[in-house]
């Protein structure tokens, strides 16, 4: 039984496999030693600060000190009496949380749809590598630089702003994308979509190439049209990479900050209308020195991120079994 | 057997490594700096930084003390983080008196009287208004290093001349000039309102001239409500000019235009507007960055902010930076002495980057007519009011800017915006 080569590579098998006496303890020790350095570094630089941050969320925390214990007061204030974070006094509600939800839905969907469309379409053209590299280039630019570039693109002055130059050229009057509360958020989201679509495209296009051509040809022989092939064959086979990309995009968007700071300014734009959760965390902790309150926002963010992180870990595990 | 040996070896290696890591973590206190070197932190980059380096180079040449200048564009977060980490710089040049007061009350900065800068020494060099800005609870913690006037209106002398317009000295004249330009088919104003501090500066100038210096001081010290009638009345005055028909691109265009782009709309190669309200530093930026073909007095000039209510005259709204010490030693003492001297001031103003609040610095040291004009305005001001939004604690100044953007965007919502801002201000002033 133990000579079966397959059972050794399956994760569940070892429980039943007979072992030499004393082998198990040694294996654990060995594992610990190999993982040890990584665990020590992670513990020191990731787990310890994270635990301290969560602890700090229960204090007032001025001067970064664990002084003036507040219990859950920070969280209560955050959810009930901080209009910058969540304002439920009117409908629809506004605030950083609501903006972050907008980001979550629009940014994630747009990146996926554009990424998938580009992946499917670029496979069919001869100059595929050129197109793909051009679309991927923004991934190599930092979010700060992306923000600066798009500040120029959106400028209401047709002699500076690319979009308004076009609008001006066809006889329209310029639109001040960042100067209107109703377009401000969407303009920033779009700039970030531009920067992230390349990632979705590259991952999905690699997955697309992994689909055996026989399957697609078989579908074609069976009389399936192009749309049916995409919808019934490609999409189901891409479901795993799509979900991996989605989780990555979601995590990325929940912690978005830099591009908004650059494009909307330290006050978060007109009426602070472009603020998101991470923006408030930065302002409260670093500008106002309310470290405890800032830590409670960070903790809130962590709680929101947690399910996505678990999802991504379990996804990776299942993908290993399939592959 | 061999396997076991290597196992033990790796275990030992890891133990050593872990111990090393812990040791580093424990001894991660700020490294003691080499004697004869001090670190100075402030927010200047680019040409402003180059100008300051010229000043510190002269200090190093004279004393042999090296100065490491660190730029922190986001000054407040950086100083807070470094204090929390127990690693502040020796000296910081702080752009906001509100921040200096915070740091002084926390005990983070030193009382200058104990560092050899007696009140007599400071009083000989600075006017009482400047001394007061560096004073917290009766003790002096900061000495003014540079100053700027924000009560300046920039205009195109060539256009004014061709239309036979004169610089305004009263609000009524300013409105008349605005209307005349409009009637001649020109756009009177540009405004870089995307950078919301340009709006707070507008408000401060109008408020100081309509409500008076006393109310101004109380408003920005948290002792007068932003829902006070004087605030909305000043805002309505301000909106007589900052409205769709007088602004390049209308209100929304202005809200989408940054500070430097706004300067470009008036002084660039293809100008779209004719007046711009911002501090004395506009001159330097316009000449160096926007359009090098500008000629002071011919295509670019400025006039002081006009009076609104004659009783309040010409109060000067301005900004300035205060040098404060986080460490007391001989090097820091001699640096503070130097930076408050007329010698340092003279080198600094000759770069054209700043105006010196030091009254021993002579007018001839300034390189062009635009800065000389500003220096004269700062020196002759009877009432000096520090930039109000910089006096507000924490992020409240930025919040005030976004609130003003919102009011510019929809003036009808002024009342509700002011009352929700007042709620924030109350919380921030009570220590949040």
Unreliable parts of chain A: 1-15
The chain-level mean pLDDT of chain B equals 89
* Terminal-residue CA separation of chain B: 66 Å
What is the total tally of β strands of chain A?
Answer: 0
Summed up, the helix count of chain B is 20
Helix content of chain B: 40-55%
Radius of gyration of chain A from the CA trace? 25 Å
| Global geometry of chain B | globular
The number of E-state strands of chain B comes to 12
Instruction: Specify the structural class of chain B.
Output: alpha/beta
Structure description:
The complex is a heterodimer of chains A (323) and B (432). In chain A, helix 5 (128-136) crosses helix 8 (181-209) and helix 11 packs antiparallel against helix 14 (291-322). With 323 residues, chain A is an all-alpha fold. Chain A is built from 14 helices and no strands. Helix content of chain A is 68%, strand content 0%. Residues 1-15 of chain A have low confidence and may be disordered. Chain B is an alpha/beta fold. Chain B has 20 helices and twelve strands. In chain B, the strands form three sheets. In chain B, strands 1, 2, 3, 6, 11 and 12 form a six-stranded mixed sheet that branches. In chain B, helix 2 (46-63) links the parallel strand 1 (37-42) and strand 2 (66-71). In chain B, helix 13 crosses helix 14. The longest helix of chain B has 25 residues, at 2-26. Classes of the chains: A mainly alpha (323), B alpha/beta (432). The interface between A and B is large, with 44 and 51 residues.
